[in-house]
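USER: Study each token:
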Amino acid sequence: MRKAETVSVDTVVSLSALLLVILFGYALSSKLTEHTKFVEAMNLVPLPIIQRYATIIAWAVPLVEAFIAIMLCLEKWRKTGLILSFLLLLVFEIYIAALLLSGLELPCACGGFISKLGWKAHLMFNAFFMLISVMPFLYQHFLTKKNIHRGVYK
């Protein structure tokens, strides 16, 4: 019987990066093509600081998404891009949770098909991509523990 081959950490990193690049590419393009709608949605958020800086936020978010997507495409910066992806998604996760807890029925500012999701679905969708962003680190940790238990050290 042949031993099961282990998927390389580099493969998991590359696949995670690819999925996140697709997500951020889609998200930033829909925010830019529906920019006015994005600004209007930011103006509806019941936080004065977001309302005051809605126009800046509406440009900053796609810019940050583009920056992270570029990092994910560059092998030298890919792991940093994964960490920044997680942090950006965490900020959005907190924002979604706050909206859900507030009970307000605000429209989604995402654009495209993602804007058709309800807030609970957004929370799950976002959590899935947060998991994608940490998967390479979890997988590497798992492999390291597995090798330590087998007496193999890297």
In short: The chain has one domain: 12-140. The longest helix spans residues 119-149. The mean pLDDT is 87. Residues 12-140 form one domain.
